[in-house]
Amino acid sequence: MKITRKQNAASGNSIAVSDKLRIDHSDVQTWFSEPISSRIDQVKDLRKLDYLNDVNTVLLVDGFAESNYVQERLRDEIPGISLIVPEDAGLAVRKGAMIFEHNPDVVAARVMYGVAVNITFDEKKHPSEVKQLYTDEWCVFNRFKIYVNANEEISVDREVVRHFIAFAKETLIRVYRTKSDKPINTTEAGCERLVTFRINNTDSVSLSDQRIEVHFMFGRTELLIKVKRSLTGEEKHLP
C-alpha cells in the first residue's frame, strides 16, 4: 500500500516517506498523555491516604512500564519518588497471577466488610433522632459492624468470627461491604448489601442461650461467609 506524502496539520513533524510513515516522538506522546496523566493523578491520590503517605517507591509493570516517557513523567510530577521497573515488565502481571495461583499466602481486602447491628442508644454519643424503641429499649439500628478493614493484609487461612445472641424468633444477619474508610451506618451511600441470612430460632430453648456464629473466611481471591447456629450446628454459606 502506497502512503501519500502528507505533513501533520498540527505540528508539521509527521511525514510519509516511501511506504513508511515517520512520526515525530512529540506527536506519539500526545496519544498517551491523557491515560498517563490519569495514572499519575491516581498515584497522587493514593499517597494522600494516611496508610500510604509515606510510600516513596512505585513498582511499574505492564506494557507502559518500559516507556521512558512514562518513567520521566512520573519522576517529574511526583518528586522524590523511586521507580522499580522489573525485567520483562510487560509480562510481570501475568507472571504474578500465575505465582499467586500456586502460592496465595496473603491477600489484601479491597473493600471493608461488616454486618448490620443494632446497638443500645447512648445520648452522649448518638443524636436523638436516630433512636428507636425496640423490646422496651431505645436502640440505634443499622450500624456498620466492621469485620475486615479495606487494604488489611489477611492470610488466606484466616477466619474472622463474631458471635451473636438471638433476640427474636428469627435472626437476620445482613452482610455489607463498602469503600468508605469510616462507615457508620449500613444505609450510607456506597454501602452494598451482599447477602441476608435468615436464621429460625427454636422455642424449646431460651433465646439468650441461642448463639449464632458468623465466619468470614479468605481463600485465594474469594470471600467465603458462613453462618452457624451453635445449638444445632446448622450452617448456611455464601457462596
Structure write-up:
- This protein is of the alpha+beta class and 239 residues long.
- It folds into two domains: 88 residues, no CATH class; 132 residues, Substrate Binding Domain Of DNAk, Chain A, domain 1, CATH 2.60.34.10.
- 18% of the residues lie in helices and 37% in strands.
- It has three helices and 15 strands.
- The strands form five sheets. The protein has a five-stranded antiparallel sheet, with no helix packed on it.
- Strand 1 and strand 2 form a beta hairpin.
- The longest helix has 23 residues.
- The chain is elongated and about 90 Å long.
- The N terminus is likely disordered.
List keywords for this structure.
single chain, 239 residues, alpha+beta, Substrate Binding Domain Of DNAk, Chain A, domain 1, 2 domains, 4-stranded antiparallel beta sheet, 3 helices, 18% helix, elongated, ATPase_NBD
Output mean pLDDT: 77
What is the molecular shape? elongated
Unreliable segments (pLDDT under 50, ≥5 consecutive)?
A: 1-5
CATH superfamily of the largest domain: Substrate Binding Domain Of DNAk, Chain A, domain 1
Q: Give the biggest beta sheet.
A: 5 strands, antiparallel
Separation of the first and last Cα atoms: 56 Å
Indicate the percent of residues in helices: 10-25%
CATH class of the largest domain: Mainly Beta
Tally of separate helices: 3
Q: Widest sheet: strand order? A: 7-8-6-11-12
What is the quaternary state of this protein?
Answer: single chain
Portion of residues in beta strands equals: 35-45%
InterPro entries: ATPase_NBD (IPR043129)
